[in-house]
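hey team, just a heads up i'm posting the complex here instead of the shared drive bc the drive is being weird again. everything in one block, sequence lines first with there labels, then the predicted structure for the whole assembly after. its two chains so it's a bit long, scroll down
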Amino acid sequence: MNEAKLTFDALIENEPFARCVAAAFVAKINPTMDELIEVKTIVSEAVANAIIHGYENQKQGKVQLIMQLEDNELTMIIQDDGCGIENIAKAREPLFTTKAHLERSGMGMTIMESLSDDFQVESSPGTGTKLTIVKKFKGHGGHESDN
Amino acid sequence: MKNEMKLRIEKDCLVVLFYGDVDHETTLAYRDRLVQAIEKEKYSKVILDFENVSFIDSSGIGMVLGRYNQVRRYDGCLYLSRLPEATRRLFDLTGLFSIIEVVDQSEEVINRE
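-- predicted structure starts here --
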């Protein structure tokens, strides 16, 4: 297994940074372009949720991204120490958002769930949020050859 | 590709061209400018063109729905133009296409009577 851990400040400008790191991490197993875009989208949604909802855009706190790659399966753990989620089932409903005034679509969790093979949310008020997301790569598969 | 939003006026249409990433950071930067441009002239047609978008996430959906609601308030119409495949797939998850028309070229809408 290959593991990488990345901890960064809860600033929205770190969202593109995090998704590009994730894309670079899985590049060696030759994912298809669609799979790469899906990984980047999942990381973007997870990181944005941590910053905008977990830390309420306060520009303080840390977000951690842990990636574990085993064969063609990537496990991503994205966690924050923010305010947590009161009602996880409600938060997972399509179009549900607590921040409609910020033009949040309420689709972040639905998108993460539909693009991943497994999607788990652990959270409670005051204890932060931990997402565990599994993505299996069916595309080219295997490792790069020297040919 | 540089992240950018360009506004172009054609007849009674506002054409909005997005370049690069449409994510939580860039939509935040674009929103006020776009809201004000639409509010000032109340264009009867607003076309959002995604041809040069390399990455998009749910913030793009929020922005589209926000502008859809904005133009509807004065009986305007919103259109989506030249959607790359990844953008189309993301929008499709939301059911956006049941309320907003998608066109292959902005001219289809600009030249429509």
